[in-house]
Design the sequence.
């Protein structure tokens, strides 16, 4: 049965980490209040705004089998405001029999009463931004918590009844060494999370640290960043270590114990419907993509004026859908089904893609077995290069 994922963006943080390239910000109480009220209003008015934009109401009729509160740091909104959002969601969407319900959290952002409330409210998965278990590294990027606070947070989450915890780690932080990275991996595994995400610090102008590196500056401890070679070593170290600990890599950045793969994130890689609400939230109905006004201030202003926050709505061309099929689908270690190309996009598309796959297979970047095309593990670190081939050539 077709289902929908529901994404709620709560874009506030207690402080801004130097490596972060998300559009989250530190805001006053009043702005958080107004944004959460706007969120409730948006959920209530979705059918009208979808109709105005020509989006099929079908998306809102599908049962939701994953709900994801992301951000930002959603617990900062507090239980009262979040409960109002949950209430609006319950009125707007049907629920599937089983729902993966995730909330992102930062150690220290939620206390025991909050965690107990969250578990009672049906949230059954926490995605915890641990990032590192070395206090020097945490302090260098402006995290407000220590490694011990992460351990304590996990302990409290378990006590509150959470049986599905994911820890995020990031490689490439200032002062990180291979030895300290191994410590972080071992510390994360010692907490026995069901899921681990490993990200590599990206140098881009969207984060303060990335921007500093691009400008050859020295702020944000840019000079203490490890070398580029470190990234490849850290990534391979993480893959090998987590495999030994029983975590299967099911996506380029994601590892889980059996049965604990993220249902919500899989929807993105498999191009399944997702309805997003909140500032900057993205949505997809199978053919069209759109997003909400990115800044919380713009988003609030539009909704308070009674205007739809939806922008950049576009129907993907057949070729764009085919490109997405590969560059999203190949992220999963299970890869994509080759025959789906002919079935969905026709013989000509199949021939074009066949040529690209043959070439990438000869370069040992892809494999093709049992009807599925997969990225070779050796190609994970150069996956963008592979995806580029599908963008340029399809
Ligand atoms: S807590 Fe998360 S979302 Fe907020 S600034 Fe840090 S990395 Fe970004």
Sequence:
């Amino acid at each position: 049965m077709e289902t929908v994922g529901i994404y709620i963006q709560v874009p506030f943080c207690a402080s801004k980490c130097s490596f972060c390239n998300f559009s989250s910000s530190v805001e006053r109480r009043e702005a958080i209040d107004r944004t959460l009220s706007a969120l409730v209003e948006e959920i209530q008015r979705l059918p009208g705004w979808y109709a105005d934009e020509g989006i099929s109401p079908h998306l809102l009729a599908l049962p939701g089998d994953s709900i994801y509160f992301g951000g930002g740091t959603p617990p900062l909104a507090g239980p009262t405001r979040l409960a109002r959002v949950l209430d609006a969601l319950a009125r707007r969407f049907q629920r599937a029999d089983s729902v993966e319900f995730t909330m992102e959290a930062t150690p220290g952002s939620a206390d025991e009463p909050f965690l107990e409330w969250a578990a009672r409210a049906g949230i059954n998965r926490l995605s915890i931004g641990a990032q590192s278990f070395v206090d020097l590294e945490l302090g260098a990027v402006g995290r407000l918590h220590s490694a011990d606070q992460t351990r304590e947070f996990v302990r409290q989450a378990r006590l509150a009844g959470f049986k599905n915890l994911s820890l995020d780690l990031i490689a490439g932080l200032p002062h990180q060494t291979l030895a300290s990275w191994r410590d972080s991996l071992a510390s994360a595994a010692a907490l026995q999370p069901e899921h681990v995400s490993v990200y590599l610090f990206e140098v881009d102008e969207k984060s303060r640290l990335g921007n500093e590196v691009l400008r050859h500056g020295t702020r944000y401890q840019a000079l203490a960043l490890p070398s580029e070679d470190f990234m490849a070593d850290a990534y391979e170290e993480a893959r090998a270590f987590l495999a030994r600990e029983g975590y299967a890599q099911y996506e380029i950045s994601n590892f889980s114990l059996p049965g604990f793969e993220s249902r919500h994130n899989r929807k993105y890689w498999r191009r399944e419907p997702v309805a997003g609400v909140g500032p900057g939230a993205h949505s997809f109905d199978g053919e069209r993509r759109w997003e909400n006004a990115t800044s919380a201030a713009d988003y609030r202003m539009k909704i308070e004026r009674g205007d739809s926050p939806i922008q950049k709505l576009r129907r993907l061309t057949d070729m764009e859908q085919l490109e997405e099929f590969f560059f999203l689908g190949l992220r999963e270690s299970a890869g994509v089904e080759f025959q789906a190309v002919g079935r969905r996009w026709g013989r000509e598309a199949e021939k074009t893609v066949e040529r690209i796959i043959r070439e990438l297979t000869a370069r040992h970047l892809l494999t093709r077995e049992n009807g599925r095309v997969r990225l070779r593990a050796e190609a994970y670190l150069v996956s963008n290069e592979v995806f580029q081939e599908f963008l340029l050539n399809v």
